[in-house]
């Protein structure tokens, strides 16, 4: 049974621009835009969740998406 | 049937604590208070309570506060050197409003001093030992029976006002053995801290008209933060100058606006006295004898014995000082309550002083001589 | 707007926390929440006690019974809580200075007593809150504002000190290896007796800058490239292990837990 579909969610307000998630994302999905995190290549995201694990400020995470 | 027992002051303090509902003690050995630790080690498990000997006095004070935060009435006892070590955590309990009783069985200082000799040299330390403006309640027993009954009162005041109470004993009453009447089970008023009506309410929010918050102990479902930083109603740290002002003022007001309930003192033969003795704690025992001798010589002498040392019963002393020619202060230090008496009496009447710092006890004759000289 | 874990275990209205951009403590604090989640503990029964310093601000952010105590004294406060109410799950979060400098005496005695407390040390090798002074774990020769010419003290190995003093579970995790660190914290909480989990954190602001360790990303990357598992470390010589981060369960032994022993005393002597 394939897991529920997940989506990358940001709370940019909490991001302090440390760049850790972008640096450790294996697929280059993320980048800093003016000291804040931004999703630059969402299609490449493999939902590995490393960004959520590494973020010291909980500003990025994977959320289950209710199938439309 | 009267329950009369021959008991040492330190032991009576333990029995009083148990009667008050104390079920946790953390301490560290130090003369002349160690019998309190030994008593608790033996007695607490007998009543389902818990004892722990910690690695130092700092840890002992912290453990007692921790136990109280978890909802168990707690006590720690020490003497001067340990009292100095406990000051920081004492201040923490003042700000976080966690009740507990800190017993200081005073011994001759300063420093290691005369460990087995009596003194009342920690009186100002009890008031200002920890840093910053903070509320203080300190009670001083003069008899072994008071080591019991006043210890109960110390717990009651601590629970009611959610503030630490210092039980300011001295080596005289601590090591003295006297027969005391143990109050019947259930005859003593026992006060427990209030529980919040709503567990979702901010922990440090006071009911309208009350100065005292009533947060539940840890584990009751009211998950809140306790911190030694100035904190908002939810217990979370804040740098707000307004909150800092209100918090410190409220803490002080808990005591200053409830003096009628907190203050206690003994007056003896003060109606038509010409001379008023001001003594407290162990020294009062010599004052009683001195009074008897002096009264036999026709000298009208009365006694004013503060039982709450802090807050100091200033108003009553000021009234009495307007009716006497002289006040004689006797205490086992170089003049500490003397400063408070001078502040209160000002020039209503003459003030004489007898103080001892050599570890021996002020005798009735020594007091009588100062009364007659003046 | 937060993840389910953060919604469940954090006091959201007080986030974002005060720690600097890239500080390892933020990751480690989440690991503690994840460990509690994995263990399915009742939040009402968890008491989180911390001392003073950057790491110790963690208590305020987490939705447990939290107590932010005085510098170095978290374990002493926690001992009182655990002894008075053994049914509570008591966890301490301390910094390296908090736990092993001013708090050293309480650390070794809590270990000696084997009291059921989980001691988590966020070790960033520096006093961060007060602006970058060196600490008892700052590596030999490294710098701090109070070691401007290089640290001439030998640093503590906190898990070793705790084990020698009697701790019956010691481990080391790191901010980089969050998944393994969460498991180690879980194991520490599950362990009956005194557990010490040193979590190697990173301090880009003070330690990083003062010792030219680069950015937060560089410091996380250093942890990734210099971490060695306990198993692998057994095959390496001391020289090879020099400066490496040995990660995993370090020691485990059995000894009766303090509050259980004391309960036996009560059961024996209590006057009914």
Could you explain how this protein is built, in words?
The complex is a heterotrimer of chains A (68), B (374) and C (272). With 68 residues, chain A is of the alpha+beta class. Chain A has helices at residues 20-24, 50-54; strands at 6-10, 30-33, 36-39, 60-64. Chain A has one domain: Alpha-Beta Plaits (2-Layer Sandwich), CATH 3.30.70. Chain A contains two helices and four strands, in the order E-H-E-E-H-E. In chain A, strand 2 and strand 3 form a beta hairpin. The longest helix of chain A has 5 residues, at 20-24. The two termini of chain A are 17 Å apart. Chain B is an alpha/beta fold and 374 residues long. Chain B folds into two domains: 4-181, Thiamin diphosphate (ThDP)-binding fold, Pyr/PP domains (Rossmann fold); 263-372, 3-Layer(aba) Sandwich (Rossmann fold). Chain B contains 14 helices and 16 strands. In chain B, strands 2, 3, 4, 5, 6, 7, 8 and 14 form an eight-stranded mixed sheet that branches. In chain B, strands 11-13-12-15-16 form a five-stranded mixed sheet, with helices on both faces. Chain B has a two-stranded antiparallel ribbon with strand order 1-9. In chain B, helix 1 packs parallel to helix 7 (144-161), helix 11 packs across helix 14 (364-373) and helix 12 (314-321) crosses helix 13. Chain C has 272 residues and is of the alpha/beta class. Chain C has a single domain (4-271), classed as 3-Layer(aba) Sandwich (Rossmann fold). Chain C contains 13 helices and ten strands. In chain C, a hairpin with a 5-residue loop joins strand 5 (126-127) and strand 6. The radius of gyration of chain C is 18 Å and the shape is globular. The B-C interface holds B 23-24, 26, 45-48, 50, 52, 54-56, 58-60, 62-72, 74, 88-89, 92, 218-221, 223-229, 236-237 and C 11, 14, 43-45, 47, 49, 52, 57, 59-60, 63-70, 73, 76-81, 83-85, 87-88, 105-106, 108-109, 262, 265-266, 269-271. Strand 10 of chain B pairs parallel with strand 2 (65-68) of chain C, so a sheet runs across the interface.
């Amino acid at each position: 049974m394939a897991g529920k579909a997940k989506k990358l969610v940001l709370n940019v307000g909490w991001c302090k621009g440390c760049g850790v998630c972008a640096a450790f994302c294996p697929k280059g999905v993320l980048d800093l835009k003016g000291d804040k995190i931004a999703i630059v290549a969402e299609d490449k995201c493999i939902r590995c969740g490393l960004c959520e694990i590494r973020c010291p400020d909980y500003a990025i995470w994977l959320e289950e998406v209710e199938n439309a | 049937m009267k329950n009369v027992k021959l008991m040492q002051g330190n032991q009576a303090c333990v029995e009083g604590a148990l009667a008050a509902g104390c079920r946790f003690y953390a301490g560290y050995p130090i003369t002349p208070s160690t019998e309190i630790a030994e008593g608790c080690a033996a007695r607490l498990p007998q009543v389902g309570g818990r004892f722990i000997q910690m690695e130092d006095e700092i840890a002992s004070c912290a453990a007692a506060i921790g136990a109280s935060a978890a909802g168990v009435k707690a006590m720690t006892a020490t003497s001067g050197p340990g009292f100095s070590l406990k000051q920081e955590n004492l201040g923490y309990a003042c700000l976080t409003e966690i009740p507990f009783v800190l017993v200081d069985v005073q011994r001759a200082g300063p420093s290691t001093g005369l460990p087995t000799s009596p003194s009342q040299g920690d009186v100002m330390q009890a008031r200002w030992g920890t840093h910053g403006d903070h509320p203080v309640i300190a009670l001083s027993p003069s008899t072994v029976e008071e080591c019991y009954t006043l210890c109960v009162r110390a717990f009651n005041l601590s629970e009611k006002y959610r503030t630490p109470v210092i039980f300011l004993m001295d080596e005289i009453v601590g090591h003295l053995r006297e027969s005391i009447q143990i109050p019947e089970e259930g005859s003593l008023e026992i006060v427990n801290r209030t529980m919040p009506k709503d567990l979702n309410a901010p922990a440090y929010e006071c009911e309208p008209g009350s100065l005292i918050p009533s947060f539940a102990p840890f584990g009751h479902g009211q998950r809140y933060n306790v911190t030694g930083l100035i904190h908002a109603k939810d217990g979370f740290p804040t740098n707000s100058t307004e909150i800092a002002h209100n918090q410190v003022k409220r803490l002080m007001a808990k005591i200053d606006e409830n003096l009628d309930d907190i203050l206690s003192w003994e007056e003896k033969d003060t109606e038509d006295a010409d001379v008023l003795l001001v003594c407290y704690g162990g020294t009062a025992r010599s004052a009683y004898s001195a009074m008897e001798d002096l009264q036999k010589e026709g000298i009208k002498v009365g006694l004013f014995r503060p039982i709450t040392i802090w807050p100091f019963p200033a108003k009553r002393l000021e009234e009495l000082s307007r009716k006497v020619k002289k006040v004689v202060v006797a205490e086992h230090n170089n003049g500490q309550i003397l400063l408070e008496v001078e502040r209160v009496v000002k020039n209503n009447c003459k003030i004489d002083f007898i103080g001892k710092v050599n570890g021996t006890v002020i005798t009735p004759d020594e007091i009588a001589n100062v009364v007659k000289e003046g | 707007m937060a993840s389910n874990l953060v919604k469940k275990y954090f006091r959201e209205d007080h986030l974002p926390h005060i720690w600097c951009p890239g500080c390892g403590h933020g990751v480690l604090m989440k690991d503690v929440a994840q460990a509690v989640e994995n263990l399915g503990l009742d939040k009402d029964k968890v008491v989180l006690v911390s001392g003073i310093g950057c790491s110790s601000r963690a208590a305020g952010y987490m939705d447990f019974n939290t107590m932010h105590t005085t510098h170095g004294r978290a374990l002493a406060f926690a001992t009182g809580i655990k002894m008075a109410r053994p049914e509570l799950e008591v966890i301490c979060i301390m910094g390296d200075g908090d736990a092993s400098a001013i708090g050293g005496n309480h650390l070794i005695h809590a270990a000696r007593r084997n009291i059921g407390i989980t001691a988590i040390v966020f070790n960033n090798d520096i006093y961060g809150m007060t602006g970058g002074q060196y600490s008892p774990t700052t590596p030999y020769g490294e710098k701090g504002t109070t070691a401007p010419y290089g640290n001439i003290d030998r640093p503590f190995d906190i898990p070793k000190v705790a084990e020698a003093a009697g701790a019956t579970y010691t481990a080391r995790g790191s901010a980089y290896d969050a998944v393994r660190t969460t498991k180690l914290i879980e194991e520490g909480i599950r362990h009956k007796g005194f557990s010490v989990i040193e979590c190697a954190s990173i301090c880009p602001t003070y330690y990083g800058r003062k010792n030219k360790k680069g950015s937060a990303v560089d410091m996380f990357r250093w942890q990734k490239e210099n971490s060695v598992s306990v198993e692998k470390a057994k095959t390496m010589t001391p020289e090879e292990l020099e400066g490496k981060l040995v990660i995993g369960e370090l020691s485990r032994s059995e000894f009766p837990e303090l509050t259980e022993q004391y309960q036996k005393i009560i059961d024996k002597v209590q006057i009914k």
